[in-house]
Amino acid sequence: MSGRRFPVRVRRVPGLRFGLGRSHLWLGAVILVLAVLIVAALMILFWKPAPPEMIIMTTGSEDSAYEEYGKRYQEILSRSGVEVILEPSSGGVENLEHLRKAKDTVTVGFVAAGLAAPGDARNLVPLGAIAYEALWLFYRSDLRIETISDLKGLRVAAGAEGSATRRMAGRLLEINGIAGSTMTLSALDGAAAASALQRHEVDVTILMATSDDAAVARLLRAPGVSLLSIRRADAYVKRIPSLVKVEVPEGAADMEHNVPATATTLLAVRTSLVTTAGVHPVLVDLLLDAARQIHGGNGLIRNAGEFPSGVADDLPVSPDAERYFKTGPSVLQSYQPYWAVVWVHRLVFFGFPIFVVLVPLLRLSPVLYRWSVRRRIYRRCGQKLGLPGGSSCIHMKIGFEQSSSTSSLANESKQPFVNWATRPRMR
Question: What is the rounded distance in angstroms from the CA atom of residue 287 to the CA atom of residue 293?
Fold first, then answer.
């Protein structure tokens, strides 16, 4: 009995077809339009332009440490196919102005702590600190100067009006009760100020610079020039929050000639690498990788591995930079060239919205089709009840419901089931 095959007899209901009708086509068109709209919305929501191939870096004056830093960033980023255009400036204040005025092109610059305003957070993001910019007070060795108060009545080169050097020098002089009228202030800065001190055209030269600055290195070794060690440095740090205390060990600049002759305490601020808002995460990784190569070693007033760091004094650090300092560069960035990382980002950007929409849509398609067939059966049966062929319609309606429920159970148990809509009839 079990080996016998029974003929299958399917009763057709007049006017009822199970193929793709016009309503199915309209339904498919609506689903397709909705899918396109959802994909477009996801792309807009997660829109991130491709990483740029060219950026502008505003650096510093000629022969300054900022200028040298810019050249090294230019060299390192060029290996990854990113062109860096260097724009010279007078220092951190002008760098900040360039960043504020930047429009379309990604701009990067060196900005010392204490210069940015809270409102800059809307358009500027620091990537972290890269160096200490110390306040170096060099004076003629034949003068007796022990504290900042002793500068009263002297000729002082303190940088141009409005520069970071003049601003910080002015605050320190003000704290010590020294007015500008009690001394002769010169606008000389950098190499020009160093030359003026060596020629005795000024008595004191104040430089706001990193330990890598050429003018600083020159004056540290210049005969007849001394470096002032700041007394009460902790008190200054309390009064001016952006300041930090740093130490220059004895002989750190020149062991052979023991320069400086004694351990020297300086006041400094952190200099940050600041970019315009919206910088691409891939470019953030590239810039911070370059920063580690340039600023990561030992220096006169820094320790190896101290920079770059995820610290910023005036503005919140970029979230992408915070991620970099916590986990390091991305896996792709570590093993793939820049162009390959860019293409992977593009594939993820276009593939993610499509994947999010397509997978649920494929799972939903059988449900929608079954609902459409059931709707047509119910509508046709409603028209056939009480008419010839009505019993066949009721039979098919009941059989379809049993088939749907049995199909669901079969999918769960993975067991074969009987389709009651096409069941064989015993003769």
Answer: 10
Domain boundaries, the chain: 54-335
Tokens 């190569």 -> residue: 293
Query: What DSSP designation does 33 have?
Result: H
- List the structure tokens of 283: 């470019």
d(CA 395, CA 285): 68
**Number of neighbouring beta carbons within 10 Å of residue 38:** 16
DSSP state of 254: B
- What pLDDT is attached to residue 390? 46
pTM of the predicted structure, to 2 decimals: 0.69
**How far is 63 from 67, CA to CA, in rounded Å?**
6
For residue 67, report the phi and psi dihedrals to the nearest 5 degrees: -65, -45
**What residues of the chain score a pLDDT lower than 70?**
1-32, 35-36, 38-50, 180-181, 329-365, 367-427
Q: Are strands 124-140 and 225-227 parallel, antiparallel or unpaired?
A: antiparallel
CB distance 343 to 50 below 8 Å: no
* 204 contacts 145 by C-beta, under 8 angstroms: yes
- From residue 151, give the alpha-carbon distance in Å to each of 86, 208, 225: 37, 17, 15
- Calculate the CA dihedral of residues 139, 140, 145, 148 and round it to 10 degrees: -20
Note the pLDDT tens digit of each residue in 248-271.
Answer: 999 999 999 999 999 999 999 999
Q: What is the DSSP string of 321-349?
A: HHHHHHH-S-HHHHHS-HHHHHHHHHHHH
> Which residues, listed in sequence order, are joined to residue 83 by a DSSP beta bridge?
54
Please give the sequence-ordered ranges of beta strands (E in DSSP) within 63-179, or none if there are none. 83-87, 107-112, 124-140, 155-157
Element (H, E) at 382: helix 338-384
Indicate the SS3 state at residue 207: strand
Q: Which two tokens stand for residue 156?
A: 């002082």
In 3-state terms the chain splits into helix, strand, coil percentages (rounded to 5) of 45, 15, 35
The architecture in CATH of the region 54-335 reads 3-Layer(aba) Sandwich (3.40)
